[in-house]
């Protein structure tokens, strides 16, 4: 189908389609559109975000079945074919003959590209190699100077995953400060976030820029509910003294504090009511994994606070109330809270 038709049909399934390039749209039309329509017939929505345990198991099953079907002797050869130049042509032929795209994504209502990246992460033996040694850090700096941000090339030279070398270099190149944030650093972070949000608003809704300019920072934060994805490497560059993960953690703590200020949500009688409400709503979702919970909706229902705020309260609740919680699945933890902790809280209330 032509590009305009593909875009129009995919809009039903992909909420952020306007941010996707034409070339990616064409690929999705070929790999995903028919799959999405089949899932729709079954009443299954296309998913994004963190993969569930069930989906991870399905990916493992799909990969193992494809290996058995083709005779390729390892998942690494299948998913990282460039590491085996002598077998490359044979593997590519087998993948084409046996419909690799369809087989690897079978039973998983997500875009093929996300499934493929997840499979690569799961089956990459270079992903779990522990801390970087001093020698590896020096090599990484040298390779980056030679090859720029060609993380694929650098990952092959270092036998580490693409993501691992990219993230580690981000840490190395930043003048890392592990102490408390200064007022100046916090000001830079706030300005950086405001600047990237200004760009976003300018693209999506130019009329909203006036209210952004006229508002004070606290109102702007409350209005935008900025616990959505942000370009953290860009923000890291503007802050200058912290790497991207520190910036993200600090921003989340600022956002949580500002949005929950004045809301005595988890204290006294209100605290008991909030915990009771949280347990009941989690139980009603029947979710098998934490990634299946719509934390945004849950947060609004409980007190219109960021999802990170409610997630942290759930974490404290399970740690303090559920024995051996680390050995239990998400659904087992919720069931225990519902059956054991909920009656105790209701009686106390």
UniProtKB/TrEMBL annotation:
User: Which GO annotations describe the biological process of this protein?
Assistant: termination of RNA polymerase I transcription
The record's annotation in Pfam families points to: Myb_DNA-bind_6
Q: Name one GO cellular component term.
A: nucleolus
Residue ranges occupied by any Myb-like domain in the UniProt entry: 124-172, 173-255
What sequence ranges are listed for the domain HTH myb-type?
124-177
Taxonomically, the superkingdom here is Eukaryota
Q: Where are the transmembrane segments?
A: none
Q: Which residues form a coiled coil?
A: none
Listed GO MF terms: chromatin binding
**InterPro entries, sorted:** Homeodomain-like_sf, Myb_dom, SANT/Myb, TTF1-like
Q: What is this protein called?
A: TTF1 factor
């Amino acid at each position: 189908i032509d590009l305009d038709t593909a875009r129009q049909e995919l809009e039903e399934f992909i909420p952020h389609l306007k941010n996707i390039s034409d070339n990616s749209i064409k690929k999705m039309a070929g790999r995903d559109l028919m799959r999405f329509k089949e899932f729709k017939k079954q009443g299954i929505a296309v998913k994004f975000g963190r993969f569930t345990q069930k989906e991870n198991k399905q990916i493992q099953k799909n990969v193992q079945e494809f290996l058995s079907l083709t005779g390729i002797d390892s998942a690494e050869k299948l998913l990282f074919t460039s590491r085996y130049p002598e077998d490359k042509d044979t593997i590519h032929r087998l993948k084409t003959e046996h419909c690799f795209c369809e087989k690897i994504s079978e039973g998983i209502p997500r875009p093929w590209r996300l499934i493929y990246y997840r499979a690569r992460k799961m089956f990459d033996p270079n992903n779990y190699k522990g801390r970087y040694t001093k020698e590896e850090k020096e090599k990484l700096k040298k390779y980056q100077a030679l090859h720029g941000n060609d993380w694929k090339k650098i990952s092959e030279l270092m036998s580490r995953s693409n993501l691992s070398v990219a993230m580690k270099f981000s840490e190395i190149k930043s003048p890392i400060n592990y102490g408390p944030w200064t007022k100046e650093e916090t000001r830079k972070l706030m300005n950086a976030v405001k600047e990237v949000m200004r760009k976003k608003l300018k693209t999506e809704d130019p009329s909203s820029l006036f209210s952004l300019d006229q508002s004070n920072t606290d109102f702007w934060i409350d209005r935008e509910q900025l616990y959505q994805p942000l370009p953290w490497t860009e923000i890291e560059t503007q802050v200058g003294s912290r790497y991207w993960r520190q910036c993200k953690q600090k921003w989340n703590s600022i956002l949580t504090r500002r949005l929950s200020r004045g809301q005595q949500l988890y204290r006294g009688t209100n605290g008991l009511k909030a915990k009771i409400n949280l347990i009941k709503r989690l139980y009603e979702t029947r979710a098998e994994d934490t990634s299946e919970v719509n934390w945004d909706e849950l947060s609004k229902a409980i007190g219109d606070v960021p999802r990170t705020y409610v997630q942290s309260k759930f974490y404290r609740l399970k740690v303090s109330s559920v024995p051996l919680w680390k050995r239990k699945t998400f659904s087992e933890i919720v069931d225990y809270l519902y059956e054991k902790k909920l009656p105790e809280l209701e009686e106390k209330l």
